[in-house]
Amino acid sequence: MVRFGIMGAGDIARKFKDAVLQTEDADIAAVASKDLERAKKWAEEENIARYYGNYSDMLQDDTIDAVYIATTTNFHYENIMLCLRAGKHVLCEKPLAMTYEQAQEAVRLARQKHLFLMECMWSRFLPKSQAVRNWIREGKIGEVKLMQATIGWVADKVYNHRLFTSELGGGSLYDLGVYPLELLPYYTDQKIIHVQKMVQMYHDDVDDLVSLNVKLEHSFANIQCSFTTKLPEDAYIYGDKGYIRIPKIHYGTDAFLYDLGDTVVESFRGEEENGFIYQVKEAVNCIQSGVLESEVCPHSMTLETCKIYDECLA
Predict the structure, then answer these.
(1) Which residue numbers are catalytic?
(2) Using one digit for the tens of pLDDT, what is the confidence trace for 39-49?
(3) Which residues of 226-239 are buried (b: 16+ CB within 10 A; e: fewer)?
(4) Residue 8: helix, strand or coil by DSSP?
């Protein structure tokens, strides 16, 4: 049994908790927040036995094997290092780190401590993502030439205030652009080797409109993201024998394969469910097997994306 502690008593942690409770050999042991009353309220609502008003106190709990970090982006690196030094395996919400240097140090410490560390790019684990990956590997659209992906919406300044605030690690690239940056290379088994950027800031504080022209090993991609502009959130992968359309690149259940005549020749339709289940199962399997990183979301995925953050947001 892998027992998780949750760091950060927010909405996304509820989705993680529900996924853990649907996973064999996994359970939630405790939740921690910097606000004791918030932790208590969350624990009572979610029927969690123990709660803490201090992260360090939770990490002294010997019944906890691993920690899920659901704090704001600016605290991810600090929280990861705290967990690793306490001897806990770590799953951290994306982005795992804000810079390449931070990511390097986190990976180095995890390996030194022989602890599992994974960025929660849950979309890589979705059944539709596996279907897309298989279509490409089977050559059903031929040689991949070009990809396009957009992701964006008009964020609420109150509920999504962290997006608008640099002190909280806000901005669209960390929160939204991370999805296509980590999904398109996974679909095609190609690394990103060069990025051209255009960035428009929101009130000189955080990046809002971001457009990237991306060169991968054997193809090109265009990626756009924003938290003040509604975008379709779809992805397209074009080959010389057809193309793939992925509605809602970062979530959802469907994917469609088209031939050169724009006819759907194959489709994938999964069931609606808590998509976090797949990444929780992966983490549990890795931890139980003594594996330090996931093959689906390896350390290299995070490190390569953090290099792009450095280049685009320096």
Answers:
(1) 94
(2) 999 999 999 99
(3) bbbeeeebebbbbb
(4) coil
